[in-house]
């Protein structure tokens, strides 16, 4: 695995948490707040949990919740991948 991408996050968002039909995840969502995409804190925790299971990267709840946008979440995951030596 070379890193966690916004496309990887989109996949998790679609498959595990779901997407409001009014939200277009195909667009440039990197800097759009999760709240604007219809994802509350519980949904972000579910994203983190699924990424942790699928990618085998340790993520903690508080920093995951502090990632207010998909782009920030991807950066957080990649920081943890690097720390985990992946």
Automatic annotation (TrEMBL):
InterPro entries (alphabetical): ACP-like_sf, PKS_PP-bd, PP-bd_ACP, Ppantetheine_attach_site
Domain of life: Bacteria
PROSITE patterns noted in UniProt: CARRIER (PS50075), PHOSPHOPANTETHEINE (PS00012)
Domain Carrier as annotated: residue spans: 3-81
GO biological process terms, semicolon-separated: antibiotic biosynthetic process
Keyword Phosphoprotein belongs to the record: yes
A GO molecular-function annotation: phosphopantetheine binding
Keyword entries, A-Z: Phosphopantetheine, Phosphoprotein
Protein name: Actinorhodin polyketide synthase
Native species: Streptomyces mashuensis
Gene: actI
């Amino acid at each position: 695995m070379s890193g966690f991408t916004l496309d990887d996050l989109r996949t998790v968002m679609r498959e595990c948490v779901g997407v409001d039909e009014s939200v277009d995840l195909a667009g440039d969502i990197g800097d759009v707040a999760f709240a604007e995409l219809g994802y509350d804190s519980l949904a972000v925790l579910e994203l983190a949990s699924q990424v942790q299971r699928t990618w085998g990267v340790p993520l903690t709840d508080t920093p995951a919740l502090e990632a207010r946008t998909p782009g920030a979440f991807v950066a957080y995951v990649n920081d943890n991948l690097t720390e985990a030596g992946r």
